[in-house]
Amino acid sequence: MPADDGATSASQKPLLVLGKITEILDAFSLARPSLTLGEIQQATGLPTSTVQRLVTNMVAQGLLDRTGDQIRVGLRMAYWAAAARKGVDVLTIVNPVLREVRDATGETACFFREEQGYRVCVAMAETRHALRRDMYVGKLLPLHAGSAGRVLLAWDDGLAERTLSRPLEPITGTTVTDPEVLRELVAQTRKDGYAITTAEREDGSSGLAAPVFDSATELVGAIAVSGPTIRMPRARCEEWVDLLVGAAEQLTRTLGGRFPL
């Protein structure tokens, strides 16, 4: 029996090491893509010597990248993520998350992508409230009005410049039509990591949106929640920022994506 116990203990060691490696990788997030050894140790609770040894080995294997004292998830992980994502239908990943957001907020959750200078709703989970916005899959909307459009512009410089170079038509009394004002709002969206808008595309409606990225840090689209301002005043939108940004981060992770620097 002692010999068997020893064999069992030895066979478990690789699993224990794998668990620790997973803990280290889980310490990184889209909000914290770069960490020091000390921050990894604090996040994992592993002994400092263990973190140092494993991080050194993970850097050597390409699982992590290290520049000075800053450590990031390595490009080898992105290569694997791309292989995992190949052939995956994005909408099969997006739809369950939209339903989760709809159920958590009670409002309509949508996923938008840019198509030919517009934003188009490619997936949605509609609110169960009788009072709702007019939205459906396939609907084309202007990029310069609304939270999802703001997000799509914020992470696509070329698209932003093309949009800002054209006349910005007023849709409501509060649509942003000054290119320089919109440029500043787009820059602020990129800094914040999300956008909140009110009555830009439709009077009496509000929206909150956040970006989703792929393994090449390219923008996949914007996840958004929207509804009547009477149910979604700005304060309520601000309360939902962590929820929606978390959903965007979940989608990015599932797609094997990375947040751009």
From TrEMBL:
GO MF terms, alphabetically ordered: DNA binding; DNA-binding transcription factor activity
Keyword Disulfide bond among UniProt keywords: no
Domain IclR-ED: 76-257
A Pfam family recorded for this sequence: IclR_C
SUPFAM superfamilies: GAF domain-like (SSF55781), Winged helix' DNA-binding domain (SSF46785)
Transmembrane residue ranges: none
Keywords carried by this UniProt record: DNA-binding, Transcription, Transcription regulation
Lyase as UniProt keyword: no
Highest taxon, organism lineage: Bacteria
Protein name: IclR family transcriptional regulator
Organism: Pseudonocardia kunmingensis
Upper lineage: Bacteria, Bacillati, Actinomycetota, Actinomycetes, Pseudonocardiales
